[in-house]
Amino acid sequence: MYKQVELNYSSDALEPVIDQLTVETHYGKHHATYTKTLNELVQKAGVADMDIEELLGTLDKIGDETLRQAIRNNGGGYYNHNLYFSTISGTASHAPTGILAEKIDKTFGSLEDLKKELTALALGQFGSGWAWLSADKDGNLFTSKSPNQDNPISEGTGRIPILAIDVWEHAYYLKYKNLRPEYVKNLFEIIDWKAVEKIYQRVTG
Fold it and tell me: Using an 8 Å Cβ cutoff, are 153 and 53 in contact?
């Protein structure tokens, strides 16, 4: 059974960047629904024992097109939100260190340049979707964006996301209304780079 990541912070801990009601609605309702629906769908498809990254990377093996698309949507919703909620914090480490910091500087020029690139992708995503920082097994870093609940795994890139920026309206609309740029700018204040580093180490380890 797939389980929501457990929050290591209270629902008001992300204030003032993300308000308590948004966390309670986003995590407690949207994410919970994706998780519940995914668990029902994988039982029907007979793939309930698969690791979520393996499942999203081999969706073409699910013969029923309707079931496959539903698992892509809800599996992505489950996976993407697990990543999102696990890499933000009210006591965030505001900059990467070690190998990840070196790789960011080498690939993008600086952390600020990476933020600019991710911001452009997040703001350039028409409608609902995500902006990503991903890594391959060799430690190379990539930025991209995806519509809906897709991600670099379900898109078949062979890359694993290590940082997610959610630009679905439910992620920010209660507080920011239509001001997506303000939300994305402020989100960087609560990204926990220590958590991102741990994921990077898992991907490259």
Answer: yes
